[in-house]
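#dry-run=false #mode=assembly
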Amino acid sequence: MIILVSSVGSTRNFHFHPFLCYHPDMAQAQSEVLEIFLTSGGKAGRVSCPHSMRPAAGQYMLASCLRNVGTAVNSTASLEPLPVPLFPSLPACLEQQQAELTVAPPLPDNWSVGTSLLLRGPLGRGFHLPSTAQRVALVAWGTCHSRLLPLAYKALACGASVSLCLSNSQGDLPVSPLPVEVEILPLAGLPDLLSWAEYMAVDLPREAIAALRRSLRLESGQHPGFLLEVLVETPMPCGGTAECGVCAVKTQRGWKLACKDGPVFDLMQLEEF
Amino acid sequence: MTDSVAAYPDFLPGGASFSCNPPWMNAAGTLGFLPPARGSWESAVLGKHCAFVTNPISWLPRMPAAERGVLSFEGGVVLHSGLPNPGLRTVLRRYARAWQGAEIPIWVHLIADHPQEVQNMVRRLEGIEGVAAVELSFAPGMSGGLILEIIRAAAGELPVVAQIACLDSHADWLQDLQKAGAAAICLGAPRGELRRVDGGWMAGRVYGPALLPLTIAAVRSLKRWGLPVIASGGIYRREDGETLLAAGAAAVQLDTVLWRGWAD
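#status=ok
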């Protein structure tokens, strides 16, 4: 069965859109790039996406370019051989249209408005924001903070105070819009957040786990006293299809795959390798 | 008439046989250890296929590589994982029963390091219903002499498919493959290196559309040894696979297209 979902109107005011076909059994849909914009983390954008496939904060979709604008139908020259993980950077309630997804950078350089995509997802395990957490700390460790934004909005919607630690390496490019209620701190302020936060979420490269522990002074296995989750930045080429091991993360319960078991993990479960 | 699958309806290596019709299958390392479920994404991309090839399996468990990752270049990627797997004993405990009940033949891909080790692995597989062939891959830089020795050690009840990289398709020792007991040649991803942002180098398997001409050339070159050639590399449209069949491949194996889906 194929359900057609509009990307330009609500389900009540239905419009046929040729690039958006949703296959409920396979959780895949054809899509297209609607907008491209530049952020501190590189190219970000907006794509059409059925609402029911929308990833939660920390989850992702895999997107494959079917055809780039301006290339011949039979040309594979500019196609990526691997799918690209797309993370949401806005909550659903702030999207311009219901069937759209604003996605965090980086997007491939050769994607442009009109590029047709195949989406698969949602995949992986996202953040688990405790409903009781009233002081939420977010940390973008050397990466763009866009992947943390849906969590920021969710926490604000729950009435929590939100602080965001940003690394100094994010350059001079415009950053993704932040809610005015979010307090911005430099990364140097991270240790102070430990005594304030009731929940912390960190977006960081896999190689930086040890550095995060050092920065938080948690090297010797001390527990921060609250849930501290890490969105591990790593290539996830197969999305769990092959268990290829590229995204493997060592945990106290053995090797786990970021693509299936993550990409969000409890920091206390992670080990360095 | 092209030298397509019609020329190789069945392989007949020393009494053992297997079919390559329809001439499509997955490449090792692309779909895990079990055939994809009906109706799944993977099944839809793979389409009708003649066999399922397992992830690479070693005698002992292998951990992920310390410097695992993916680097891109114009035309492809270099992927390095270290081929992590739980080792043959655990794989058999987990999956052998499912292989017995599989609807399509299972080709078990073995990481071949040492003749005796490979022989032990193959003997354990010979008694398992559903296993139709073993596919062997060899460490980069392994000598042709050792590869032939391993194939001789593996030869037995199950057809042996020897995986080589397309860049090795002119090696002299390939002329002895059939005599050593190989039933078919399978092309695997070539090795390459790229520079990481930190200045270091990452070696790994190369995938991408840029490989298609190399794969075609390898198929046409390897045909001369009289063994069926199973092509892999650079296939991102169905037409790419058809081109390889027309070039003489007995079948084609799909790699990362199974993760990304077919291009238009």
